[in-house]
């Protein structure tokens, strides 16, 4: 179960006592507040709080024009201009605070985005729950033969069953030993929690509050919602994309068009494209790019 009974009770209490406010609110985000969106087998993403909307982005952009020079351009057009030309500070005027439950190995990838405020559940003070991420059979892949940090073909049959059994058995054994080490029964003093936690596997679940501005959130989503991102972090990014689309629809649509759905070409790629448009036959041998760059270029064209 993603939410503990105590967490669910807290959420129910918060939802039953709405507060009035004079600040800007977004109906789509109000519906997300205190709602846990399930991710993976035990994880979730939920909105704790947010600040700003599409109008806040435009307000911040126009304040720099000076009095008497306010553009008559509509908000959506302005936001698309800002996104298209890589302006960042107006998007920093919006912020969101999320409560996320995720496997530790996903958290270690996530924390590399160092532009957020984070407070994580502490295993020094509290005992972690017996909850582990065990991949679904359709998420068990072999090592890719062309990408050292990617996945290849799906594992099937006996090999898939063997891997799943090992994951389950190792997770259970490690947690049993963790419990045994911290136990104060039978005259034991119990090992300190801050030491006992080192025996836990990287697929155990942790939780944190993660607060970030929209500019840095979109940068996170551009990398982690990409098809090349690891599946286990990508599904969190996908859930967050749906939330952002309800929060700042103009900004998210521009993000989809100019970031998620766009490509970046090197000067060599642009030169090859011009040559192709001029009728020249461009091949891997005469393109002036490495094999990997050529393969990526072919991927862009297709």
Automatic annotation (TrEMBL):
It comes from the Bacteria. The keyword NADP applies. Residues 1-20 are annotated as: Disordered. GO terms for molecular function: flavin adenine dinucleotide binding; NADPH binding; thymidylate synthase (FAD) activity; thymidylate synthase activity. The active site is at residue 224. Belongs to the thymidylate synthase ThyX family. Its EC number is 2.1.1.148. Keywords: FAD, Flavoprotein, Methyltransferase, NADP, Nucleotide biosynthesis, Transferase. Pfam families: Thy1. Catalyzes the reductive methylation of 2'-deoxyuridine-5'-monophosphate (dUMP) to 2'-deoxythymidine-5'-monophosphate (dTMP) while utilizing 5,10-methylenetetrahydrofolate (mTHF) as the methyl donor, and NADPH and FADH(2) as the reductant. GO terms for biological process: dTMP biosynthetic process; dTTP biosynthetic process; methylation. It comes from Pseudooceanicola sediminis. This is Flavin-dependent thymidylate synthase. Gene3D superfamilies: 3.30.1360.170. DUMP binds at residues 109-112, 120-124, 197, 224. Pathway: Pyrimidine metabolism; dTTP biosynthesis. Its cofactor is FAD. Binds 4 FAD per tetramer. Each FAD binding site is formed by three monomers. It is an enzyme of class 2 (transferase). Transmembrane segments: none annotated. SUPFAM superfamilies: Thymidylate synthase-complementing protein Thy1. PROSITE patterns: THYX (PS51331). Homotetramer. Coiled coil: none annotated.
């Amino acid at each position: 179960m993603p939410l503990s009974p105590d967490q669910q009770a807290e959420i129910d209490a918060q939802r039953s006592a709405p507060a009035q406010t004079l600040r800007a609110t977004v109906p789509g985000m109000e519906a997300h507040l205190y709602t846990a969106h399930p991710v993976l087998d035990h994880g979730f993403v939920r909105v704790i709080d947010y600040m700003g909307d599409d109008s806040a982005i435009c307000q911040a952009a126009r304040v720099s024009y000076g009095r008497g020079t306010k553009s008559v351009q509509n908000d959506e057009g302005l936001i698309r201009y800002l996104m298209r030309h890589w302006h960042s500070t107006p998007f920093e005027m919006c912020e969101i605070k999320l409560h996320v439950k995720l496997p530790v190995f996903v958290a270690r990838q996530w924390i590399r985005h160092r532009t957020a405020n984070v407070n994580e559940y502490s295993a020094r003070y509290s005992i972690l729950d017996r909850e582990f991420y065990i991949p679904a059979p359709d998420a068990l892949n072999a090592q890719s033969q062309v990408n050292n940090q990617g996945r290849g073909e799906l594992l099937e049959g006996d090999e898939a069953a063997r891997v799943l059994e090992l994951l389950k058995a190792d997770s259970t054994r490690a947690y049993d030993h963790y419990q045994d080490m911290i136990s104060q029964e039978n005259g034991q003093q119990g090992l300190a929690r801050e030491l006992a936690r080192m025996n836990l596997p990287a697929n155990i679940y942790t939780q944190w509050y993660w607060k970030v501005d929209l500019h840095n959130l979109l940068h996170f989503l551009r990398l982690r919602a990409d098809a090349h991102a690891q599946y286990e972090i990508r599904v969190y990014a996908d859930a967050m994309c749906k939330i952002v689309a309800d929060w700042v629809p103009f900004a998210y649509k521009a993000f989809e068009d100019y970031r998620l759905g766009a490509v970046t070409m090197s000067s060599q790629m642009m030169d090859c494209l011009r040559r192709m448009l001029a009728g020249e036959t461009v091949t891997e041998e005469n393109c002036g790019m490495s094999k990997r760059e050529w393969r990526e270029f072919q991927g862009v064209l297709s």
